[in-house]
Structure formats: structure tokens, C-alpha cells
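User: Here's a protein and a ligand (S-adenosylmethionine). What would the complex look like?
Assistant: Let me lay out the input and then the predicted complex.
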Amino acid sequence: MVPHPLLRHRYDRLEDKSVFVNGLFDAGAEHYDPVVNWGFLCQGNSYRKWALQRHGLEPGMRLLDVACGTGLVAVAAAEILGSADAISCVDPSEGMLALARRKLEAHFIQAGAEALPVADASFDFLSVGYALRHFGSLEAAFREFRRVLKPGGKVLLLEATKPENPVGAAMFRFYFGGLYPFLTRLFTRSDHAERMMQYFWETMDACVRPETILEELRKAGFEKVERTRLAGIFSEYSAE
Ligand SMILES: C[S@@+](CC[C@H](N)C(=O)[O-])C[C@H]1O[C@@H](n2cnc3c(N)ncnc32)[C@H](O)[C@@H]1O
């Protein structure tokens, strides 16, 4: 199952998606933190920490942060765990990883979610922040998540989801589809940053609905599969 249909104005074949997405994040990496910081009203970092705590991340656990990007989830996790010693971070974009490496002394691996170069049953908790739309296959990624988690291990996927109701969906489109990329361009003067935020919207708009994500987690063998919704647009997919 793909997280969204092909976006043909970006790439014609699924095989080309990862090249496009890596190029996008490599080129936009330096703008990522400031843009997501003001775009989410400076609440993104405290929200990430709050979500990890509510879903059971505790000192003593080993965490794998998949699609770590510039390390925003991992930094929040290190505050909970007391250090980054037990954190491994995975991302295919060298540009994003380079920025994450400057922030914390975790273990960094350049790879995609669909083939994680880590041992079976080696983590207590696995997190993904705002990235499952970029995976080539939900099935392959979720199968890997289950493989690398210890029995009873937890997975937490954070996402922004287009609301179902027409008024909410229109507001969501106005902000993420128009205003946010426009302001990104205005503040950064960067084509790369603007394109990154346009693509952010395009993938949210095209993303499979939450029921499909929950179903794919169940199919991969996860239990206690749930979606917590916040403020109408934030989805927290959790499972064991
Ligand atoms: C929007 S950023 C999210 C970064 C971070 N998790 C956060 O919460 O801010 C999406 C990240 O997903 C990464 N990514 C893209 N394709 C991926 C894949 N197939 N597997 C894992 N990560 C991927 C990108 O390189 C990028 O760093």
C-alpha cells in the first residue's frame, strides 16, 4: 500500500519518488527548523515531547526515531530519556542528518524506513514524525517496524491529517496549500524551502485516510492500534 497515489507533476514512477524526496529534503534542510517552528506557532517541539510522554516513552527505553530529519523528535526524546545514548536515528537525507548530528550525540544511520539496517527486536519504542507520506510502501515500513521492535514494543506515528468536514478542510487547504508555502518563500527567499512546503501540502492532500493507516498497522501484526486526534488536524497513530 502506497501512502498516496503518484504525484505525476513531481515523478512519473514510484521508483523515482525516493530520489525526488531526498533531493527535496537535502536542498531544503537548512530552512526546515525555522520554517516548521513558526509554521506550527512555535509549539512543535513541546508537542513532540508531550506526545512521546503520553504514549509511554520512559527513561531506560531504547528508541528508534525513523525519518528523524533534523532531529526534532530525537531531541524531545533525549529530554525524556535523560541523554541520547539509547537513541538511534534513521533518515535517507544526508542534508537533514547533517543538521541532526549537530544537535545530539545519538547513533545516526542513513537509510529508508522500508529497509532498516538494525537488528531484530532491538528497540522498545519507535517514533516517526510527519514522514509516513514519504515512504515508498506502508506495508514494507510497518513490517520493518514490527521486526525491529522488541515484543511489547511501541510505535508512535505523528501526522497532520486533512480534516473530513468541508469547513475544516477548506481552512486546512488555505493555510497549508497557500499561505504557508507563500510565507515560507517570503521569509526564506528560497525556492527549495517553498517547494518543500508545497510538497508537504500535496502529500497531506493526497494521503490515504487514517482508517487505511490503522488497517496497515494491524496487517503488519500490531495490536492495540489506535488513532488519537488533536485539534482536528493532528493524528497520533499508536500500537504495540
Ligand atoms: C517532514 S520531515 C520530518 C522530520 C522529523 N521527523 C520531524 O518531526 O520534524 C520528513 C523526513 O522524512 C525523511 N524521509 C523521506 N523518505 C523517507 C523514507 N523512505 N524513509 C524514512 N525517512 C524518509 C526525509 O528525509 C525527512 O527528513
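Summary: Residues 86 and 137 are 27 Å apart (CA to CA).
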